[in-house]
Amino acid sequence: MLDSDAMKQIQKTIEILNNLNDNEKDLVLNDINSKLEPFKNDGTIKKKPKKKAAFRMEKIKIQLNKSSRVTSCPLCGSNHSNNIKKNGKDSKGNQRYLCKSCKKTFNTTTNKVAHCSKKSDGYWNLLIGGILDNKTYKAIAEETDSSISTVYTHALRVMEQVVNTSKSQLLEGYVESDETYFLPNFKGDKEIYKYNFNGTPGITYRKTDHELYGIPTASEIKNRQKKGLGLRGISKDKICYCTAITNDYTFCGGPVKRGNIDEVTLSKALLMNLSPKTFFIGDSSRANKTFVGKYNIKHELVVSDKNSRNGEYNLQKVNYLHSLIKEIMKSNRSFSTKHSEKYISFLAWKLKNKELPKEEQIELLKNMMLDNKKPLTWEEVRTTSFPIGEKIMSGNLHNHISHE
Length: 404
Description:
single chain, 404 residues, alpha+beta, Nucleotidyltransferase, domain 5, 3-stranded antiparallel sheet, extended, disordered C terminus
């Protein structure tokens, strides 16, 4: 309880405040609130409010914790909470669940990047943070005390999760679309592997991709051009990358064919990702004209050399993405054509989420998942097919691999 002297001072203060007008009262009260330390009813000082960034990060962690309270099955997609029940714990003490619909068990990491991985949560934080910072795989391997091949496989696993997500999203509003062309890159394409797919020692023989698909390598094409035998303009020696991106950097696209784009290829690459609310912006190529006319898409086709940078409709965002891709392709960190969709999708994801704190980006990538879609395995990384070209031999790539 307050003593009599304190009560008299409070009464005098109230009388002084009552003699002020409304604006003066607001100024005085705001000044008092900013200078006085906040107290609770019991006389103890209240804790200072958290900063916005820290509060937002805590909010995200709460949302992720809520999402870990599984309400849907990652194997069959059943989202009825009554169909999911707890089913004991694994050897590490993690909770497992049983889906009554598909009769299968799973845990909170099923179909996420850490699925079936023995690596710790700290390892995944360092790995994802490293690829977000554009570190080399060698540097990440040294930081995480892992092999380069393990880091490479897990990095592609993270990127593949982004690809899976981008394939299921629709592009709405203004969508900029354009093509870019690169020589084929067969980086990592070997005839002999020293290890089998399960990691055990053993020699593995296979046909190289450029032999299997009949595509000349970049060095062969450059040697041909030096002799004056290269084709002028856009030739079939180059790989066409068709990309589309919205104002908020929602993205779809990847390598589509050898040589110039056509309407059929453009439809296969983009049509499934375009919303009815799409306003298509592209160059005035024959493929774009046929594409927007055939499917009655609202559009604006600009002349690249005049309106690609100026005017209400332009191709600035998609050209900026292409410039980033070219920087990587010209550097020592260039990626192979067969994994190019993963790298480009991840690059677009970084642009879309560049305003988010790094910790938040790591959490989003760790928890990215699609129903009934398992993360990439080491075997799938090594046997990924070249996405362009006609196969000389029929059958799956696995049929052309022999073990000794």
